[in-house]
Specification:
There is one protein chain. By secondary structure, the chain is of the alpha/beta class. The protein has one domain: Ribosomal Protein L25, Chain P (Beta Barrel), CATH 2.40.240. The protein is about 20% helix and about 50% strand. The protein contains two helices and six strands; from the N terminus they run βαββαβββ. It has helices at about 15-25, 45-50; strands at about 1-10, 25-30, 40-45, 60-65, 65-80, 85-90. It has a six-stranded mixed β-barrel. The protein is globular and about 30 Å long. It starts with a strand and ends with a strand.
């Protein structure tokens, strides 16, 4: 099973904040489920390598502040003009 390291996103929300994160080499993402919604940030470079082993609909583990969540990778948004990742979604199982 693929393990993804994430940090909690506590500030700079919205589209402008997301663009700043993407320019800085980070990937804004969302984890949602019965435990609530978590806005998280992933390292875009590392996540591109995990995409070789991960596909939409597959299970993975997201480590957030030392706690491991079992998730399903739901969606990925890409900017095909600039070949960058824009946003990812995970559903907590």
């Amino acid at each position: 099973m693929v393990t993804i390291n994430a940090t909690l996103r506590t500030e700079d929300f919205g589209s402008a904040g997301s663009r700043r994160l993407v320019r800085a080499g980070m990937l804004p993402a969302e984890m949602y489920g019965k435990e609530g919604n978590f806005h998280i940030v992933l390292n875009a470079h590392d996540f591109e390598f995990t995409l070789r082993k991960l596909a939409v609909g597959k299970e993975c583990e997201v480590v957030l502040d030392g706690k491991t969540y079992k998730c399903i990778f739901k969606a990925l948004q890409e900017n095909i003009m600039y070949d960058t990742l824009v946003h990812a979604d995970f559903q907590i199982v």
